[in-house]
């Protein structure tokens, strides 16, 4: 029997998330998180799902990513799922930025590594950590196919009219300035699952996907292909997020430099870490914001209203881009769990065929579900995202046939 297991790795600057999946039956065998890498007290958390065992936690210094992946390997081996297993078909890596070049999952070789490294200037927080995880995994299993699945690849189908900024073309090309988009694995998975929920093929469906977490993005998906998305050169553009500003007049930056005396690094910190919901009201947790609103907090209400206003603008814009919309799908932490956000986002859009049924919207469920009224012209859905499964599926589709 051919090997059917895929290990999915998501290497951050100080953390490694992992899942081991069996693509034979799409089951999860183990999941884990190693965080605070390089700090005095690191945390290793592992859950052996295949055996139904209890989650395990241990603390102690994990010096670097090599030590982190070795700790992961030890945890997997303790459950009989070690990296030396002949059932392991490949390792799939989440890579945040693939630029314009990588349009699909790619088997990693020296050329691919060099290109990911070349993209570090447009993804300085993410690509270096992704590279470290890849190189460490290769050192542990040099004989195993390693596959890069890029956050940006789903959005490479955008037409130039959507991907280009209206700046001097030569300057843009020289510095690779264009709209790349992010959260691509989530948008790909959710758009496809939304089509399944409607009983149709992805090629038959136009979907607006709203990935609403601490980071948030929207996409317009026509027939399974992205034609527009809200994030741009970086994840800063677009919707109001937990700590990011989203869309803003770029002249604000010049004003803060000239009048506020702020440096580029200070403005970068302001817009990425001290803006969005946390900048507006001091909280970036939607549950806390809703609690404050219920207590009559005007600042929390204003933050919520700004968040919803931006969200509605993108729904309307992408409705215009697509021309026909079959479904609007909410996903990620806020999208899946915050009924008031979903209700407010489509309120007043009945003329576009959008509405939620109060009872369906309030009900909590674990799977994909419709929350629009029976017979609605446009389906409104809640579709839990599963980026690890998407990475595993893309990885196995690429290398599984060769095993």
Automatic annotation (TrEMBL):
Pathway: Metabolic intermediate biosynthesis; acetyl-CoA biosynthesis; acetyl-CoA from acetate: step 1/2. Keywords: ATP-binding, Cytoplasm, Kinase, Magnesium, Metal-binding, Nucleotide-binding, Transferase. InterPro entries: Ac/propionate_kinase, Aliphatic_acid_kin_short-chain, Aliphatic_acid_kinase_CS, ATPase_NBD. One of its GO terms (cellular component) is cytoplasm. ATP binds at residues 17, 211-215, 285-287, 333-337. Mg(2+) binds at residues 10, 387. One of its GO terms (biological process) is acetyl-CoA biosynthetic process. Mg(2+). Can also accept Mn(2+). It catalyses: acetate + ATP = acetyl phosphate + ADP. It is found in: Cytoplasm. Its cofactor is Mg(2+); Mn(2+). Pfam families: Acetate_kinase. CDD domains: ASKHA_NBD_AcK_PK. It is an enzyme of class 2 (transferase). Belongs to the acetokinase family. Catalyzes the formation of acetyl phosphate from acetate and ATP. Can also catalyze the reverse reaction. Homodimer. This is Acetate kinase. The gene is ackA.
